[in-house]
């Protein structure tokens, strides 16, 4: 089958999917796209850190942020001979 013919058949069959299953179908279609899958995995990894600092006191968090800024500044302010 040619790609256009396959596409037309798939689109025609979608009409028969019950409305309450369309979200499942959409999720399945997205899962087939490798670019979206990689992006979704990255998003999940980043979001896994959400709330990580919620148990810190304001002072500890402030100290953490200041120390992080200091380390970044020192790291990128140095001269490197290549």
Describe this structure in words.
- The chain is mainly alpha-helical.
- It has one domain.
- It is built from four helices and no strands.
- The protein has helices at residues 3-14, 22-32, 34-47, 58-77.
- The longest helix is centred in the last third of the chain and has 20 residues, at 58-77.
- It is elongated, with a radius of gyration of 24 Å.
- The model has no long low-confidence stretch (mean pLDDT 79).
What are the SSEs and their pairings?
Blueprint: H1 3-14, H2 22-32, H3 34-47, H4 58-77
Encode the helix/strand succession as letters. HHHH
Radius of gyration: 24 Å
Beta-strand segment tally:
0
Can you give the mean pLDDT?
79
Number of helices: 4
Q: Give the termini distance in whole angstroms.
A: 56 Å
Structural class, from secondary structure content? mainly alpha
Number of domains: 1
Oligomerization category of the chains in this entry: single chain
Low-confidence stretches: none
Q: How would a textbook summarize the main sheet?
A: none
Strand content: under 5%
Share of helix, binned:
55-70%
Q: How would you sum up the global shape?
A: elongated
In a few lines, what is going on in this structure?
By secondary structure, the chain is mostly helical. 70% of the residues lie in helices and 0% in strands.
Keywords:
single chain; 82 residues; mainly alpha; 70% helix; 0% strand; elongated
